[in-house]
Q: What sequence folds into this?
């Protein structure tokens, strides 16, 4: 009876299917092909690329500096506008307070003269 008992099978058991690893095949060039290809850059090509990168870096730094300058200019304009608005507001409040003081004085003087 022990001989008829089948041990449990472990692992992947395809039932008419292709194993997943075999199913996925890389279709691009192999590593060997990449090493043997003719289109690999020469030292001169690499030097030219580095020069271009340095040129691009200089251009980028220039553009960044220009952008920062523009930001600072815009920031200064905004701050100036805010200060103008604040000063205008302070002047308005000051006028309002003075008007209230003169109104209260004149009303107190009126009441003093009317009571006489």
A:
């Amino acid at each position: 009876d022990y001989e008829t008992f089948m041990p449990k099978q472990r692992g992947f058991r395809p039932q008419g299917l292709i194993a997943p690893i075999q199913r996925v095949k890389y279709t691009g060039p192999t590593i060997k092909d990449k090493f043997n290809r003719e289109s690999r850059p020469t030292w001169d090509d690499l030097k030219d690329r580095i020069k271009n990168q340095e040129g691009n870096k200089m251009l980028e730094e220039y553009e960044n500096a220009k952008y920062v300058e523009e930001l600072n200019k815009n920031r200064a304009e905004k701050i100036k506008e805010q200060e103008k608005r604040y000063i205008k507001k302070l002047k308005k409040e000051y006028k309002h307070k003075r008007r209230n003081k003169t109104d209260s004085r004149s009303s107190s003087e009126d009441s003093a003269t009317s009571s006489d």
